[in-house]
Amino acid sequence: MPPANSPWGKKAQQKKPLNTFPSLKNNDIANDSPKSPYQETQDDELIALASIYGDDFRRIETHQSAWKKSEPSFEIFIKTSDEDFSVTLGVTLTLTYPKSAPLLTLKNTDGLRESTKFKLQKIIEKLPKELIKEEQAMIMEIVTACQEVLEQAAEAKAAGRELPTLQEERAAHEAAAAQILEDQRLEEEKKKMLESQEEERMLGSLVQDELKRQRAKAKETKRKNQPPPSITVSNSRSCLS
């Protein structure tokens, strides 16, 4: 049975496939077509997520025709020890996921403070863009990041601490983003400086090589231009006298 605070009352029922064309029994053409590496990764991740999250994982059935493959959609109910801090993450895996980012939405956020919603929204906007570089399953990592935000809010409530306001969260986010841009700018300047130093070093090396070549050439030219040594032939008469 799903938890009492689950947004859906019961576990999703498996629906029988709908045959669009009577002559294609159980969509044999779609089922028999070879799977892409993306589909295999998605299938493995769906099995893992269903096993990890149990009743908090709900697959959303999407109609699949005989000619077009559907994009898997599902929801994960993210909860904490405090039932007031929970959210539902809606996920649609694109055809090229995990090379491309999944489509993510937040649902059932009415009970959360605006600052918490803001942090969750930033996670689903930014984290997938960072994770697609690895081209690996990422949904569990996104869920964990969202859960950490909810846990922080729940712990603040339990300790009687005031959470930052939405304006404060936005200001902190903008400051962090500005710091990232500044770090990137400094890193780019450092990179350009190192490249410039390397170019100067290589240019200096080329100049030295050219000077050596010119000196060697001048020395060789001078050697060739020198007159041959004179040979003194003694007079035979002088020798006889």
Automatic annotation (TrEMBL):
This is RWD domain-containing protein. It comes from the Eukaryota. Residues 44-153 form the RWD domain. Residues 1-41, 190-241 are annotated as: Disordered. GO terms for biological process: cellular response to stress; positive regulation of metabolic process; regulation of gene expression; regulation of protein metabolic process. Residues 190-202, 209-219 have a biased composition (Basic and acidic residues). Residues 16-40, 231-241 have a biased composition (Polar residues). It comes from Botryotinia fuckeliana (strain T4). SMART domains: RWD. Pfam families: RWD (PF05773).
